[in-house]
């Protein structure tokens, strides 16, 4: 199979016997958010909620979310796979099963989960499977990892609403994973708020141009 799956099809989810073993030590995380100046780890302020969203390369995705009114903090990391405390190179190998995600801590009174998902859907193409644009591999798949039954319902309703609009626009089926949230593993420090530290860095964010209706709106 080669070192870290060299030569392997990285757009295929690994079988259990293929996944890397990982490690017990968690990634060290900066104390403060480089752009917002707030903590990057819990405990979070009372009344806030969390969302874990994957929409391709997490550098641009994180910047998109930390700029939203109502967002308290963000962090980038890995979710949806089997390898504990993975390193970036391991995730990129396709042998952890994780996708790149953003943890978003938000005030639901100012920015609801449904409103957050409208931004999520419109910021990428959720019909591409194991890729976003030129970024190819399981770590670039679209995903929503819900925290509770309420988030699951909202995620599924918003997916249905956006699917209808995408079909009208000529797009195919949404491939976004909607699954119960497992462990969120923080990414390396240099990935955190990367585009704040490197304003000219790569940003893969790019949507379809199709508007996601607010829940309850009729389809156009």
Write structural notes for this entry:
With 220 residues, the chain is α+β, with helices and mostly antiparallel strands. The strands form 2 sheets. A 6-stranded mixed sheet has the order 7-6-1-3-2-8, with helices on one face. A two-stranded antiparallel sheet has the order 4-5. The protein has 5 helices and 8 strands; from the N terminus they run βαβαβαβββαββα. Helix 3 (113-122) packs parallel to helix 4. Strand 6 (142-146), helix 4 and strand 7 (177-180) form a beta-alpha-beta unit. Helix content is 22%, strand content 18%.
What are the salient characteristics of this protein?
220 residues, alpha+beta, six-stranded mixed β-sheet
In percent terms, what proportion of residues is strand?
A: 15-25%
The arrangement of helices and strands along the chain is: EHEHEHEEEHEEH
How is the quaternary structure best described? single chain
Helix % is 10-25%
Shape: globular
How many H/I helices? 5
Structural class from helices and strands?
alpha+beta
Low-confidence stretches are none
Number of strands: 8
The overall pLDDT, averaged over residues, is: 95
Strand arrangement within the widest β-sheet reads: 7-6-1-3-2-8
Major beta sheet, specifics?
6 strands, mixed
The Cα radius of gyration reads 17 Å
N-C termini distance: 49 Å
């Amino acid at each position: 199979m080669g070192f870290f799956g060299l030569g392997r099809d990285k757009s295929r989810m690994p079988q259990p016997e293929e996944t890397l073993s990982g490690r017990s030590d968690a990634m060290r995380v900066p104390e403060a958010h480089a752009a917002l100046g707030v903590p990057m780890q819990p405990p979070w302020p009372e009344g806030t909620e969390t969302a874990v969203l994957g929409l391709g390369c997490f550098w641009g995705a994180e910047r998109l979310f930390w700029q939203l009114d109502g967002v308290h903090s963000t962090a980038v990391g890995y979710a949806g796979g089997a390898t504990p405390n993975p390193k970036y190179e391991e995730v990129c190998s396709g042998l952890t099963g994780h996708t790149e995600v953003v943890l978003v801590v938000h005030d639901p009174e100012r920015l609801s989960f449904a409103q957050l998902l409208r931004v999520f859907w419109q910021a990428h193409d959720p019909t591409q499977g194991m890729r976003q644009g030129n970024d190819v591999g399981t770590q670039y798949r679209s995903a929503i990892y819900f925290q509770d039954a309420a988030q699951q319902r909202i995620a599924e309703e918003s997916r249905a609403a956006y699917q209808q609009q995408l079909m009208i626009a000529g797009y195919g089926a949404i491939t976004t994973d909607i699954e119960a949230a497992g462990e969120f593993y923080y990414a390396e420090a240099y990935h955190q708020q990367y585009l704040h530290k490197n304003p000219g860095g790569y940003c893969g964010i790019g949507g379809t141009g199709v508007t996601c209706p607010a829940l309850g709106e009729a389809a156009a």
